[in-house]
Amino acid sequence: MADPSLARFFDQLAATYDLLYPDWPAAVAQQGRALDAHLRDALGDRPHRVLDCACGIGTQAIGLAAAGHAVTGTDLSPVAVARAVAEAAARGLSLPAAAADMRRLPFHDARFDAVVCADNSLAHLTTPDDVRTALAAMRRVLRPGGQLLLGMRAYEDARRERREVLPARVTRLPDGGRAVTLQLWEWHEDGEHYDFDLIQLLPRGDTWEVRSRRTTSWALTRDQVGGFVEAAGFERLAWHEPADSGYFQPLLTARC
To answer: Which PANTHER family does the record cross-reference, listed alphabetically (predicted)?
Structure first.
């Protein structure tokens, strides 16, 4: 069964998820261009059937749909999914989407040309069995020769330093105000898992509204992620760094 606390975390975050980015519309366009380039390079310069299996409010799915791909979105959070559909429609785009756990994708085998799992979503699965189950589900819904695109945070330095606070992000609001996002990390004894508090400060007149939410992540290294992906039966694994790929996080690509 899906973790209700994780679904609740993203349900509560959905209304302000865009404020994690300094400029969310620009991020949607930029990430869409980067992922589109990878898809067309790997699978051919034409539209493809794409599943974004952790679509959130549509950050990657909307950009890919704008690039001409037939994108379907799923996410653990029904509130986030509803916003993704609405954000796509506001841009004149169709984004069929549903609430679903990436470990139990509700699609027939070999349905998609590509599966995207981005924004460090795999790290919210905190056991090897869960990661293996999710990757097996992604592989199942990919056609033979299909492409996996997996966006992950670069955790190697964070684990070595046992990082506790991430730099604050400031987002300019349409009315000229500012919103601030902070992350506080509390490491588990194993040195791999951590609880994090996602804290958002939202301007309310002459004061601030503080919204704080907590969940757990697994600080998976590239070697760990690659090992899981290879064990799931994927081939031709390659990591692409942001400076080369144009994508904001390290991106793993692999073929079914």
So the answer is: METHYLTRANSFERASE, METHYLTRANSFERASE DOMAIN-CONTAINING PROTEIN
Same structural domain for residues 58 and 118? Answer: yes
Residues 46 and 99 reside in one and the same domain: yes
Q: What average pLDDT does the segment 50-57 reach?
A: 98
Range of the domain at 164: 156-218
Regarding whether 101 and 57 lie in a shared domain, the answer is yes
- Separation between Cα atoms, residue 24 and residue 57, nearest integer Å: 11
Same structural domain, 144 and 178: no
97's tokens: 């989407």
- CA-wise closest residue to 218 among 125, 152, 133: 125
Q: Which amino acid is at 135?
A: L
Q: Are residues 43 and 144 in the same domain?
A: yes
Distances (CA, A) of 44 to 127, 202, 219: 35, 44, 33
pLDDT digits (tens, 9 = 90+) for 59-71: 999 999 999 999 9
The whole-angstrom separation of Cα 123 and Cα 134 is 11
Whole-number percent of the chain with pLDDT over 70: 99
Number of domains in the chain: 2
Tell me: pLDDT of 72 over 60.
yes
Note whether 92 and 184 are same-domain residues: no
pLDDT score for 1: 46
Tell me: do 39 and 119 sit in the same domain. yes
